[in-house]
Structure formats: C-alpha cells, structure tokens
Amino acid sequence: MQYVSTRGSAPALDFEGVTLAGLASDGGLYVPAQWPRFTTDEIRAMRGLAYPDLAARVMAPFVAGSLTEDELSAICHAVYGDFGHAAVTPLVQLDQQHWLLELFHGPTLAFKDVALQLLGRLFETFLERRGERLTIVGATSGDTGSAAIQAVAGLERVEIFMLHPRGRVSDVQRRQMTTVRAPNVHNLAIEGSFDDAQAHVKRMFTDGDVTGRLNLGAVNSINWARLMAQVVYYFASALQLGAPDRTVAYSVPTGNFGDVFAGYVAAKMGLPIERLIVATNINDILHRALTSGDYSAGGVTPTITPSMDIQVSSNFERLLFDAGGRDGAAMAEQMRAFEASKAMALTNAQAEGAAALFTSARADQVETARALQWAYRAAGQVIDPHTGVGLHCALAVAEAGTVAAGVPLVTLATAHPAKFPDAVERAIGVRPALPARVGDLFGRAESFTELMGDYAATRDHVLDNAAGSHG
Ligand SMILES: *Cc1c(COP(=O)(O)O)cnc(C)c1O
Fold this sequence. Notes:
There is one protein chain. By secondary structure, the protein is α/β, with parallel strands linked by helices. The protein has a domain of 223 residues: Rossmann fold. The chain is built from 19 helices and 16 strands. The strands form four sheets. The chain has a six-stranded mixed sheet with strand order 4-5-15-10-11-14, with helices on both faces. A five-stranded parallel sheet has the order 9-6-7-8-16, with helices on both faces. A three-stranded antiparallel sheet has the order 2-1-3. Helix 11 links the parallel strand 10 and strand 11. Helix 3 crosses helix 4, helix 5 packs across helix 6 and helix 10 packs across helix 11. The protein binds pyridoxal-5'-phosphate. The site of pyridoxal-5'-phosphate has 16 residues, from helix 11.
C-alpha cells in the first residue's frame, strides 16, 4: 500500500515510511492512495474472530508490502492480548437503541492506548529492520503523555522524554507517567505552563545540536498508524450488532478528529455505517464547520472534558482532502490560507461529502452532566465526561430522528470514569474507583526530573541522558 500527502508534494511512501515519518514533509498528512474495500462476504466471514485476529484481518491491506501476515498477526496478539478485558473493546447495552463501546481497557484507561500500544510495537519492528534508534520527545497536559510512555516502556530501540508542566497535571495523570519504571522512559517536570513545555519540544526539532545527534520522533495523533488501529473497533462492534446485514451508527467524542475519521475509513472499507455523529463540547469548531461550512478557530475554553478542548482539529484535513476530490495542490492552498487567517470556508464538494456520513452536535457542561445522570439511572453505568458528551449528542440525534429508532447507536466510551473522578462525582454523587489492575497507582514510587523553565537546561538534559545519542 502506498500513501500520499494531503498537500500533494511530499513523496508517496509505503506503510513503514509513513509510520516513522508521522507528518509529511510538505506539512500534509498521509492517507492511503486508495481505500481498500472488503466485500459483504468478506465482512461476514469476520464474525466471531477474536479481537487480535480481527485486527490483523482489517489492517492487512494497509500494511501490505511492509509487514507479512505472520508479522502483523504476531504484533496484534502481543498488543491486544494484554488488555484488561478479554474482548479488548467490549460493548455495553444502555437501552433498546443505545450502546457504549468501552475503549478504556488499556494500561492508561483511555482509548489512545488501543492505537499507541500498536504504534510502539510497529516502531520497534521497523527500527530493528533498519538498524536505527528513535528518541521520542513530547509535551503533555495529561493523557497522551501517559499513553505514549506506556506504549514504548521497555522497548529496545525507542526511548521517550516526556515533558509535563510541573504541578499542573492531575495526580492520577502524573503518576500514570512517573511510576512507569523503565530505562528508556524519562519524565521531565518543567517549570511553567503546558505551552512552555510544548515550545521546548518544538524548538528541539529545529535545533541542529539535537537533530544532529538524535533521530527525533513524535507520537502525535496525525500518525496514520494510529488511525488505522482505531478502524478495528468499528468493525468489532458493528459485527457484534449484526453487520454487514444491519447498519450501525456511532457517536464519537471528538477533539482532533482522529477517532471519528477512523469511522469514516471503516465506512470506505465497506462497513455499513449509517451515520457518524461528531460530538463536541463547547469548543465546537467542528460542529460549526459541519453545520455551516465555516471552519474558523476561536479561543479555547477549558471544560470538564479537557481532551476535547481544541482550537483546530488536525485530522479534519484528511476528510477535506478525501471528500473534496483528493486535489493536493488545492488542499495546500486552502490550508495556507487557513493558517494565515485562522478561518476558511468548506468547498461545496467538501461540505456535501462530509454531510453524506457525518452529523454533528455539541454538549455544554450541564448537558454533559445530564448525560452522566441518564446513563447512571437508566442503565446503572458510570461514564466519564468525554463519553457523556458523546452520549448527550447520541440521545439528541436519535430524538431528532436523524438516526432511525431501529438502528443501533453506539457511543464511544473514550476514557474510564476514574480518570475524571471529581467531575463524575459532581454529576452523579458517586466517586468512581480505579480498576484493580491500576489500583496501586498511589502506592508506587515515582521518578521524574525537575527542571527550571529554560530551554537550554531541557535540551542539555535530553542530550546528556539519551541512549540514542551519536556524537
Ligand atoms: C483524545 C481524546 C478524545 C478526542 O479524540 P480525537 O481522536 O482527538 O478526536 C476524546 N476523549 C478522550 C478521553 C480522549 O483522550
């Protein structure tokens, strides 16, 4: 499988190339040159497969030429054999129509594990093949950092330096990073804000002293392999609900548009998806874009769903490219204008292409809390606030008749409620406990290095402690 950039001028790469590259060299995002498509019979034959085998079946066309079937299968078994639930992503029924797809049974209790655990193994496989090492440098305000650390802890050819703003991440979030004891994991607590930490990371990628000595990498959500891994759970859940002989709809708590774009990919591959609901909180750039065609960035308002507090959604570019006719030159021009003015209008083709599958909705904090209460009262389910945004939107769209009553509507449960205990307790009066397998989080020793907020100190610490340094 070959991959092309959404901005048309970066070279086409194979799967190994796009996995290690992340962003394309022209600033665009990689997408498959064409969508692989399963026949109805091929999809029906997937029924009953265990998750790791289903994952290998669904992802096979995307990795063709870079991994053999046996290699892919071994990776999927190693990654998904280790989740906290045998089904990996179990479905839970809420009522006649509504379901939850629990994506939080990985090591850090959020859906990002499903993709990042796979990405870590892919890095290791490809680096070994090339005889190379990779030094991942990242900044986190909470969730992605711990998922990335857990994904690479103990790997031979990958090391990670994760910066977090000292004292500004929650205790659970910090401990999920700092209690991981592996020689290739380095936690740095930086004095200052998340933006200060992020600025250090960005500067390292353009600092010749660093790039001359380290092969730097990132694990952000624009990496194609992450989206690919997320396609699998749409197949897993739809098959359980009767696909390919029945259509299914999804409501997806959305930030960077990665998770919901994976649903679009599943539909392109032949899975009968009736509708994808893009569920946003009050930071609703995507809801505005999908309802009025106006994609314009505002400020960010902090909410009880921090993983969805975004200004722009990087993966949205993939949809605009595909729905808009795959014109890389036009996409590059459109994105240049957007980066200059922070606003753009969708073309007719983009708006119509998006409307064919996506519906959007938003939830404010009162509505989110009400969805938590509904799940608790109607089905005895304690859900996290991100999932609550998705559920509110699912209930609203079903009420409006946009998804017919006979179509199962699955809300993606993107985080375990115990990651956000305060917001959950405020909404339903119940404080969720950490699951047993991570329950000793507060008993484990922490390890991190505190650094004052200047760039040179951060850079020198990374260079002095990187095993992958050559020179
Ligand atoms: C990252 C995240 C999201 C948003 O997912 P995107 O792929 O960025 O749209 C939603 N909920 C939780 C809990 C997350 O961690």
